[in-house]
Amino acid sequence: MSTLQVTRALFDEVMVPNYNPQQMVPVRGLGSRVWDQDNNEYIDFAGGIAVNALGHCHPAMVETLKQQADQLWHLSNTFTNEPALRLAKKLTDATFADKVFFCNSGAEANEAAFKLARKFAYDNFGADKNEIIAFYQGFHGRTLFTVSVGGQAKYREGFEPAPGAITHVAYNDLEALKAAISDKTCAVVMEPMQGEGGVIPADAEFARGVRELCDQHNALLVYDEVQTGVGRTGRLYQYMELGVTPDILSTAKALGGGFPIGAMLTTNKVAPSLGFGTHGSTYGGNPLACAVAETVLDIINQPEVLEGVATKRAVFEEELEKINNQYNIFTEVRGRGLLIGAELVPAWHGKAAQFLAAAREHGLLMLVAGPNVIRFAPSLIIPDEDIRAGMAKLGDAIAQVLTAEQSA
Ligand SMILES: Cc1ncc(COP(=O)(O)O)c(C=O)c1O
After folding, report:
1. pTM for the full predicted model
2. Which residues, in sequence order, are bridge partners of residue 166?
3. How far apart are CA 62 and CA 12, in angstroms?
4. What is the pLDDT of residues 28-58, one digit of tens each?
5. At what angle do helices 384-407 and 303-327 cross, to 10 degrees?
6. Which atom of ligand 1 has the smallest separation from the CA of 196?
7. How far is the CA of 88 from the centre of ligand 1 (A)?
8. 301 CA distance to ligand 1 middle (Å)
9. Choice among 253, 330, 355, 393 that is catalytic
10. Nearest Cα to 262, choosing from 140, 93, 401?
11. 330 in active site
12. CA angle 37, 39, 41 (to 5 degrees)
């Protein structure tokens, strides 16, 4: 056995400093609970940033992974494999899409989506139709193309020159899009609800208007459902709720429930532009990932699980309202399903991270979405008693922060 002391300090010694993880090191998870090296228990409202949609170590996922581990791990795309084809069939049966491209992450799914949008325009309308319009505060990943389409300048600063022909306009502002779109636009890229940007849902009217403008200008509509997808909002994908069908959709995060996988979905009309040899990924469609994702999809895409999302949201809202009645700390609780954003009152703007730190001390894991919003993205099957227990911890954490502020 190694005698190496695995602590947070080792992170600083051996890891590139692009992350700043918590001091405690988690070692085990089950359902909506996580334990650290000292066996401290945490309730998990963060869900690995909207990934652990079935909680930790769901028995069906564990069983699938073990079975597939004894069967076949990897081939590369010089061969296809049964789990990948079964998963692709289920994804196409369940959505607008006819065709699937598999990859390993959300950024990669978006990279494929953006490349496909450019290539489709190139093939069908010529090289001048190459402009992409996206939205301020949008988030699409951390590759150079995805930070460039993303609407937050801080993620691309210092990495320039960035890919060109990308414009940003205000989200939920149809007039701004109308002014920017033209026949040179090849795609409009949007999250149906901005996640990292502050948990901001698209207005249904705006979403319909975007679709119409795309149609008028022969531009493809790309939905980034990396965070909203796979049941998070109470529908399998959020486009279903909005009643708007995109031409391309990216999905990742919850698709593997914790096993890395991403996918780009599209139609028979658009798919041919990614012809043989145009794009690829060594691990894309990996049998282990696809087998786990098939199990995740089978479980989540059932009425009782999807309907349960609304019921659980109601418990979150009820508990958050109780907290707010006591502390008057949130201006708004928003989002859809189990992607919930609680915006702090102006006096606490810029300080969402303080509440996260206090919650962790009380045994609760949660997220921020920017500096002003506390974000919850728990398991879609989190027991109601875990929601209530977690909210009790949040109440205690808020009391602690407010008391510390008063005595400062
Ligand atoms: C909407 C959206 N798109 C893309 C990504 C990037 O996904 P990944 O980190 O798997 O590359 C994220 C990650 O937070 C996201 O929320």
Report:
1. 0.98
2. 132
3. 32
4. 999 999 999 999 999 999 999 999 999 999 9
5. 30
6. 16
7. 21
8. 21
9. 253
10. 140
11. no
12. 115
